[in-house]
Amino acid sequence: MARHLITSALPYINGIKHLGNMVGSMLPADVYSRYLRQRGHDVLYICATDEHGTPAELAAKEQGLPVDEFCAQAHDAQKAVYDGFELSFDYFGRSSSPQNREITQHFARRLNENGFIEERAIRQVYSPADARFLPDRYVEGTCPHCGYDKARGDQCENCTRVLDPTDLINPRSAISGSTDLEVRETKHLFLLQSKLQSEVSEWVARHEHEWPQLASSIARKWLTEGLHDRAITRDLDWGVPVPADTWPELAAEGKVFYVWFDAPIEYIGATKEWADQDPENRDWKSWWYEADTGENPVRYTEFMAKDNVPFHTVMFPATELGVREPWKKVDYVKAFNWLTYYGGKFSTSQKRGVFTDHALDILPADYWRYFLIANAPESDDSSFTWEHFTATVNKDLADTLGNFVNRVLSFSKKRFGEEVPAGTEAGEAEAKLGEEIAGLLAEYETQMEALQFRKAAAALRALWSAGNSYLEEKAPWLEIKTDPDGAALTLRTAMNLIHLYSVVSEPFIPASSRAMRSAFALTDDTAVWVSADEARSLSSVPAGTPFTVPPVLFAKITDEDLESYKERFGGAPE
């Protein structure tokens, strides 16, 4: 089977992420990784906290902590939330690791040797009140493109346009708030992206036909506008330092690399972190260096929201190309639009919307996992509302799946005891059901392979609905009065559906899948997926298998619950 390298956008270290961050990268990457593992592929799912740059320094300053201590605590806090969501990272690293420092500095040296880095004197914002140069995010002001008055010096959160601090109208220091700013000369390293324009264009042209339109259109837009040489160092105390053996003057001044230079390299760095834990059995270079050669090449898929797309489809590929070494480049970029909160943007800085730690406080992870993937913002932005969330949970999870599991197992236990009943041989209704299940499973597989998550969720929902339709058609609560063996067959078939659901639903709702699967005391339950023939036969749980009735899988959200959530988190804007 194939080797699949999966990465999701690195979450910034400054605070717990919101649901929009979760559905825009990490959660769909997890769903896809789980599915590929079930299908027998060799999967390596890598992510990490993005710990450099001004957000880390500003957040540490706000909490009164040294930045390294703040980052260590914040990493553990984020990891705890992702564990709560059951994100199945093979490794969740840190961009401040020694491995990332080593590889980032190697990339910089190689780019310099190949003529793609240049030292330039530039004029940069300086704050006398703070007695320091202000890197991009240390400058705030009004966006010249959309008028948003809280734009940062690197990018406008409102219109997503990339900015320089000197572009801002009415700029101010993010440290002191001082508007007494000057522009002074300083030296920085520039990545000469303009010299790599044609190579990046050719590389994108070879891949963009396979990418979603969102990813390819953003990449092409940047290339059409032309790649500009970009400063890749900053005046910060925290970051990957410029190596003194190559740039002694800048190193003496304390320059560090720009976070958007070292952050994508952390995908490689985190893989080395993973390998260094067990070097005898793990080879990080086989995933990243000359990974397209040999008998079993790597297929690399990235997951990210649209604001990260330019950096991963243009800037990082330019870096990899300029290094002139055979580093693995992305094959498929799964890009997402925004998940909004009642039509407004989720915002970490403005604390608008539901954040992932708070989500887990009120409901288990599977509720959120299913809703977010079933409503993933793939072709357009999608909106989170408490009303929509409640309706989805109650209809799909509580009624369609949860109620099916509970009533089948409870009724069978009441009428036939705690073993799967035998009943008669499968008949025409069961054969029809088997064909329907096999067809729906094939559709589910097709959409998962195509990374069409909303369509995959619809196919999974249809699988669950098929069981309810079969149960309504056979009506074992009536059948048992005149044909007990027929009712036993119906329940045995339904129990086999529950086991099938437990296997194929695992990428979406892993905890609930475990609960369904553990209901049956099968002596040798090693199924990792369900074949078409197994779907047709529905015989993996034989008669006589002991079973238990698990706790309610999904509790309905009541009107009182809904009102309390809206009161806590806010409902529709006034």
UniProtKB/TrEMBL annotation:
Family: Belongs to the class-I aminoacyl-tRNA synthetase family. MetG type 1 subfamily.
UniProt keyword annotations, A-Z: Aminoacyl-tRNA synthetase, ATP-binding, Cytoplasm, Ligase, Metal-binding, Nucleotide-binding, Protein biosynthesis, Zinc
Protein name as it appears in the record: Methionine--tRNA ligase
Taxonomic path: Bacteria, Bacillati, Actinomycetota, Actinomycetes, Kitasatosporales
SUPFAM superfamilies the UniProt entry points to: Anticodon-binding domain of a subclass of class I aminoacyl-tRNA synthetases (SSF47323), Methionyl-tRNA synthetase (MetRS), Zn-domain (SSF57770), Nucleotidylyl transferase (SSF52374)
NCBIfam families membership: metG
Catalytic activity, as annotated: tRNA(Met) + L-methionine + ATP = L-methionyl-tRNA(Met) + AMP + diphosphate
Methionyl-tRNA synthetase anticodon-binding domain span: 420-572
PANTHER family listed in its UniProt record: METHIONINE--TRNA LIGASE, METHIONINE--TRNA LIGASE, CYTOPLASMIC
